[in-house]
Batch of 2 targets.
Target 1
Amino acid sequence: MKSRRLALASLAILLAFTVIAGVHPLATPAVAQEATKITVKVTDSGLDPETIEVEQGKLVEITFIWDHKAYPNEEHIMVLEGYNVESDKIDAQHKEATIKIVANKPGTFTFKCDLECDLHDFLQNGVLKVKTGSGGGGAALTKTKISIEPAAISIKDGKVTVNASLLDDKDQPIPKGDITFFINQSFAGRSGLVEIGEERTGPVGQARFVYEPTLTGTLKLTAKFEGMGIYDASELAVDIPASRAFQAEFGESVLPASGHSQELVELKDWAPAALISLIALIWAAFIFILYQAWRVSRVGDGGPGGDASA
């Protein structure tokens, strides 16, 4: 009897463990995808190899190695088009630089030297081929964010200075990232983003942008990062309010009379009235021409003002 109870108890314990394990399976640590590592030598005769191939979705590290013999003063910055990424400079003192990408775009992409050098023409034909993969899960892009703190915005002498920071998902700075700046403008009843400039982040992941507005009021600014290498795209929209200091800089309705900015503001103010006046003038001229043509036709027909002896 005891043995039977013991067997039933063991079975119950085993069943309970199975249920718990089914509901809460043992967690397995995530394994990061191992990078596909490729080496490209930059030699006196060109790139070696000139063509490299990877599978779509792979994390890829391409290391460029300075390997000159007859050109000891050559310097190179290698860029990979289509992935918006460039290497650090390599030379006789710093012989290696590595770029990293998630090969999420299939196709053929050019890598080349972006500095003018003696061998420049021989270093323009590198090819990266990204082949369509087997359909398995690929490496994920690293999330990014743009940060523009209120303290990073200053207004002086009619110019707005914005310091934008580009950070990864661990708040680490991302250097060499291109941030494009837009403002929201309205014209003829329609509004949209207008590009006003682009800046690249420095070693601490910050881009400094200076803009001279042509209008007063709240400035709606959008900063966009299109992504590069292993980093995903991101954007941020901020409003720069028309504070008292801002209005004092710019005046109540127009900018101070300096350069072309004042002329542009004045042009916008009187342009609608000028357009209406021009249209009215054109119509008046058209009516006058019609009237003169009518008079000429009347004269030709012997009407009033014509030759009565005819």
Note: DSSP finds three helices and 17 strands in the chain.
Target 2
Amino acid sequence: MTAESHGRARRGARAGEPQDRRHRALSQVDFGNSFAALGSLAYAGARVSAHVCDVQTGATLLTIDDRIVQPVGAIGSLLLLIEVSARLSAGESGFTLLDRVRQSPGTGTDSARHSELPKAAKRLPSLWNQLKVPALPVVDLAVLVGATGDAVATNALLRHVTLAAVRRRGETLGLGHTAVLDLVRAVRGPDEAPHFAVSSAEELAKMLAGLYRGEIVDQPTSARVLRWLGTNRGATLVAAALGPNVAREKPHDESFRWVSSLGLESGLRAEVGLMFTTTRAAAFAVIIEFDSDAVATQLTAVDACRIVGHDLLEYLAARGGP
């Protein structure tokens, strides 16, 4: 979303004209606050895209340049988790041990290069780096990736299933904008892919909606991926209004819950996820790129994401929330 396109959309709304398909907010709650917050970022020079949809009805609630392909950081690991889960559903063992030492990008036969791998791995954001255990089973690594976006665990799984297999999975799912391009790297050189992964807000939100409905590969595969993402108990941007996830005290507890995946890098704040109760759900994706590393810019991006969360919470509550 650019300042110019935002201005056109707002002027069209004031004139009573239908807004462009890429810039609209349709629902009982009009998501006007979300549009204004994200639009202010676009006026300031950020590259913004968003998509929010009702999972049950399929209704589109908010779209902002949602088909533009952008870097999404660790959110790309969602496609990796789908591939891992699909293999488990097909009968592959989840208890194969994968070694942490060989997780850094750039493995090779050269002994000098190999000796640098542990140091390279330590530069990556990873909870596994803080643990003493040198190897973990596939299922535990999937939990680490789902809960924290663990970079070393992500690379372990990518080396295990192969990058080519993850790309084929995306093609099988009909994803034209979503791809994992490379391993996670602390520093990217001129001969390496510019990003770990790319996607569009529309595809990401629809992917989460498909997982909720059990349509990604099959129901067991979809449910397993959501369980892995659900191990994230506190890190969120959009769903921050709900507070940390907690276990349901009753089987039919109608309190709001969320699952999500974050992309947090220099110049990037992105999140894809679900807000839901036991009876209704909405999927969201917000991607914000900015050139400035100023703290004020980062906080403005975070605040805009939270405003989307507030509008989404109001929408779900209007549909019969607790």
Note: The chain has two domains: 1-68+200-322, 73-194.
